[in-house]
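thread from #wetlab-drylab

HS: before we spend reagent money on co-crystallization trials with zinc ion, can we at least see a predicted complex? here's what I'd submit
DV: go for it
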Amino acid sequence: MLQGTRTRRRRIPPFRRRELPSVYLALLAFGLVVPLLPPLDMPDVPVTTPVLAPEPAPEPPPPVQVQLVAPGPVVPRAALLNKLADTHTIALTFDDGPDPRWTPKILATLRRHGAVATFCMVSKNAAGHEELVKQVVDAGMRLCDHSHTHDEQLPDRDPARIDDEVVGAQSTLSAAAGGASVKWFRAPGGNWSTEVTKLSVEHGMQPLSWNVDPRDWERPGAAAIVAAVQQQIRQQAPDGPIVLLHDGGGPRDQTVDALEQLIPWLAEQGYRFGFPVP
Ligand SMILES: [Zn+2]
């Protein structure tokens, strides 16, 4: 971390003195109520994070709060999903993997910071790398179907082909992950059609869009990726950011470097890492 960033931490305005009693009361009430709440039923999220063979033991949890949102029944939406449960949650999404060169690095960075993300995988890329898909899920991440072959002309294909690209890929990814559910679909290139959207919803997948896109696949440099995310979050994501990044489709060393800088910055801004609304 750069030395200069230390002085800019925590921009939370100080409480006024007369507001402090009510703040303490609220904290006390929160502490009394939360233990009474029933535990969330999260069938898709492992309670414990298995230790991945090639990695050292996880470090102590850093000050990044992870928010796990339990998947619920899919409610069809008229528009693409482009918002989050609340404005303080951020959803990091990684497209075009899995890639044995980059997905493990992204995963290790997320785990080291206690962050979670959604991986929009191309099922063709999962062939021969099923263990990678499983590692992603076992680490508490979630899967999004990004088609079978990343055909960006998907809406122009015949129904059987579309079915294979959308539903076939969902089955392949789920099987690779040991039966984990795949709750989102993201069209290759963001090229949507009514048929593609309808098909994904019929199979339990919300169409997943984004509202922050630093175009990391153009490899503008890690600093440019970081700056683009920071600027777009401020300007384009008042309802909560869904950030489009890539762990496959080409060299992703810049994305890895950018992520290492972005996670602490996002935590300093008060964001919690979570998933899109399923
Ligand atoms: Zn893609």
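DV: The chain has eight helices and seven strands.
HS: ok that's useful, forwarding to the group
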